[in-house]
Amino acid sequence: MRAWMLDDFGLENLNLHEIPTPEPAAGELLIKVSAVSLNYRDKALVDGIYAPEKMPKGLIPVADFAGVVAATGSGVTKYAVGDRVTSHFYSTWQDGPWLPEYADFQVGGPLGGGLAEYQVLSEDAVVPTPPYLSDEEAATLPIAALTPWFAMREYGDIGAGDTILVQGTGGVSIFAIQIASALGARVIATSSSDDKLARARELGATDTINYRTTPDWAAAALELTDGRGVDLVIDVVGGEGLRDSIRAARGSGMVAVVGFLDGQSATLDLMDVIWHQTHIQGIAVGHRRSFHDLVRFLDEHHITPVIDTVYDFADAHAAYDQLARGAFGKIVIKVG
Asked: Which residues contact 223 (CB under 8 A, 6 or more apart)?
């Protein structure tokens, strides 16, 4: 089979290889990969800034993929050949609280990912693909959709009458707008582009802030909420901007730290945290039970993922380049 493999850190070292097709062991599925989607994590991993000490040489990258079961190992009971499935990022996190050892079993590094014609996963490391979605659409779900869902439904209790703030218009942020809107929440979206903000409104954002023309977007969010602040901030930026997310949150509100586009460290004014009694919650995607809940919710509300561009398998480098430039929604690579 053909597989993209990371021979060393740096996009120039992501190379296409011919390697033996894997065989499923007991409890495993051999999946013929149809499509993968890229997350910022995938770029950070290739760049060598995402847990580099855990990544094996020759890794097949990309966490999120969808495809069809091509063969099953002994003892498999949940899926059969021909079933459509979507990968689950934390392959061993089934339910319950986070445990540190789950980090060693992330699909797409340290475990092999989906940027190959075939991949093997445990039958407990996938969910059924929603029937109404194509494999290209389903490949966008494992990280970008589950992350905001987990923040809103497992750590928060977001619903009608609540307000969330979403940063930017990348994959996680667009799903956050769609999911929160379907939950009946008010959604404030930020971006540096008025055109993207207009598109965000079409997807369910009720209020928008252009942070280029309104640099103090936290103050603008407070004004929009009559000084109260928002119930939940989905912070995909990280870095020093985390301080503004804390300012924008209401008293006892939550800042869900889900990304690090602006850096992996931040300096906080602890008095702001104390006076606001802010909950700062790291979100490491979510467990498989919550992914099943999400799939049912998406199916019920018929939410369609927003895909910016679909690339051919041979054009993986171009897909990564666009990821670095930014996209509205998701970037997908078609495999099969």
From this structure: none
